[in-house]
Amino acid sequence: MYSLGVKLSLLNKIKKPNKNATFVFGLQKSGTSAITGLLAAYTGKSATIDTKYLWEPYRTQLLEDELTIKQLVNRFSYPFSKEIIKEPSATFFIDKVSEFFSLEKFIFIVRNPFDNIRSILNRLNLPGDEDHIDPSRIHPNWRYIFKSEGQANYIDTLIANWLAANDQPGWTSHPGCLLIRYEDFNADKEGVIGHISHQLGFGRMNDISDIVDKQFQPKGSSPDSLVEFFGQKNFEKIASKCEKVGHELGYQRLA
After folding, report:
1. Of 91, 98, 146, 171, which has the fewest CB atoms closer than 10 Å, so is most exposed?
2. pLDDT tens string 49-100
3. Cis omega (within 30 of 0) on the bond before 57?
4. Nearest-angstrom CA–CA distance, 197 and 207
5. Residues facing residue 108 across a β-bridge
6. pLDDT one-digit tens code per residue, 94-113
7. Dihedral in degrees, nearest 10, Cα atoms 14, 17, 22, 23
8. What sign for the dihedral angle of Cα 161, 165, 166, 170?
9. Any idea which of 41-45, 186-190, 211-215 has the lowest mean pLDDT?
10. Are 111 and 27 in contact (CB under 8 A)?
């Protein structure tokens, strides 16, 4: 019996990266896992839902041109051999991804900033109404997001992260982009998955009615009041700083 590490190493040697893979972009906790999982089930296509090979240290190496996307995917080819590939980190360097993958058609998921930021904080078991967070309270896999924590309120950091992911008109308005709002998906999961599949020319292979409410990631809690969750100061920060981009993405009201 091979260990998991040995098996993955063998698969990386056997498999070739799929240049025509359909990428799913979107900030963490914007619904990318659920949409990717259901789309794969609906279409019968293979999918990668998250890959550590686009986390640190590879993320920084790509951004600082110490490593090319071609070098990375050829070295760790297995997760990049699938037909659908989803990894939120890639949202911050789509231009790098496009240097190897065709991106003729891709999916970009957006979510209301209040709910997106709240969901990230829920995932990390962090409150929304403080000024600063001790980095030791943050899961190691997420600390890179808060690397400027010494200079900034952590809500400011998450706002900047939301804007960096979603304020990319060159990609969100790209002819090949299928822009999906999480709220529309949540209101009609089967309908939106069917729409995505049709737009991508995938067709339907399986009935997903029995798994549409499957939790692909830990579910966060929904507070009775966003003002209460964030506190007035942090609430107003999110509202003012995200309003313009939110409107451009179709959110006439953020809260």
Report:
1. 98
2. 999 999 999 999 999 999 999 999 999 999 999 999 999 999 999 999 999 9
3. yes
4. 13
5. 25, 179
6. 999 999 999 999 999 999 99
7. 110
8. positive
9. 211-215
10. yes
In which region does residue 27 sit, left (phi positive, over 0), alpha (psi from -120 to 50) or beta (all else)? beta
First to last CA, the chain: 53
Give residue 135's pLDDT: 83
Q: How far apart are CA 17 and CA 10, in angstroms?
A: 14
In this structure, are residues 179 and 245 in contact, taking their beta carbons and an 8 Å threshold? no
Burial 26-49 (b: 16+ CB within 10 A, else e): bbbbbbbbbbbbbbbbbbebebbb
Q: Any idea what DSSP says for residue 9?
A: H
Contact 109, 180 (CB under 8 A): yes
Provide the token pair at 120: 């990230």
Radius of gyration of the chain (CA): 18
How far apart are the C-alpha atoms of 67 and 63, rounded to whole Å?
A: 8
The alpha carbon of 57 is separated from its chain's Cα centroid by a whole number of angstroms, namely 18
- Mean local confidence (pLDDT), 234-247: 96
Q: What order of strands is seen across the sheet that includes strand 22-25? A: 47-49, 84-86, 22-25, 106-110, 177-181
110/243 Cα distance (integer angstroms): 14
